[in-house]
Amino acid sequence: MRPSHEGAAPDVGTAELLFDLVYVFAIIQLSHHLLAHLSVHGAAETLVLFLAVWWGWNYTAWAMNWLDPDHAAVRLLLAGLMLPALAMAIAIPDAFGANAGLFAGAYLVLQLTRSAFMVYAFRGRLMARNYAQLLAWSGLAGVFWLAGVFVGDDARLVVWAIAVVIDYAAPLAGFALPRVGATKMSDWPLAWEHLAERNRLVFIIALGESILILGFTLSETELTPATVAAAVIGFATMVLLWWLYFSYRLGNVTGTLTRDVDATTMARGAYAYAHAVMVGGAIVIAVGIEEVTVHPLHHVTWGVAGVVLGGPALYLAGNIVFNRARSGVVPRSRLVALAALAVVVPFAPLLPALALSAVAMLVLLVLAAATGELRARPDRQVRCAD
User: Fold this and answer.
1) I need a labelling partner for 218 at 20 to 30 A (CA). Which of 59, 161, 184, 242 fits?
2) What are 147-174's pLDDT values in tens digits?
3) Cα(305)–Cα(343) distance, rounded to whole angstroms?
4) Count of CB atoms within 10 A of residue 372's CB?
């Protein structure tokens, strides 16, 4: 088990940071998949792939809450889990084609191996029973992941979507099994500050995708005034997302809970689910930045409008869920910003990409200014995003 440090959150180990490096590549692959399939069907495919990638990372982050990252066996576990995680990322471009078996198989190896290790490591303890039930749910979802490999491409999307629903419903159902019952959230004692730090780091990785895309795009594109303007707007959007995420104006500087709720229940909503939406929003924003930088003066298609406006909207929606889970408060400022983005949607095809991206960036800028967050220094001690 991870050693206890009374009064302090456990540090994020270097082995955990090494594991996260795989997800730099995975996020790049996901953004490229969406960029290559900029349609409703392509977005649905990317969503299913992203949710699988996120769940693999999320369950590993939770497991490390109870494991000592400096123990040799745990280091070997994380190094071993990097291989199926990397295989998933490699398979993403053709996951709904020739690489379906690689993606599904690697995902199952990742999920089942980790849970089996936890059952063995905590044998004779309550945590072993918890992970045995989680293992059973992962096996149930695995039936659909494997079944999806052997059906046609369109049917695969439906079957894998069912698998994703099972995976994501499992914690909400308490990993309930017949004649065994459900595990209570209080049976998963959690150092949630450690989980908060892990999620902040992976959000930074998602933001880094915008920098990579912007840099590669500019290095391969003629630097016209419109292109430079698009790059500046894209960069400003990324910085505003970072600023809003780490600002403490709506968060809690001390790191104490502001809601009378079990810490594990809070973490499930705020980190397992809400952060999936926020990280997904950051990935979609990166795709929008590339589209606008390459074609700044083209009138947008609905697909381009979807990523330019949808990225910030996803982030804001996730932030609302985060605040609701974290403090019980629904920030009205985020709702107003979401409404502002929705108002722009009908007019999106009338605007060049550069103008539409400027509007999306201005919504985030006004949000930061109106809530006083531009006057607030992002605090390094913040334990949660606002």
Assistant:
1) 242
2) 999 998 889 999 999 999 999 999 999 9
3) 13
4) 12
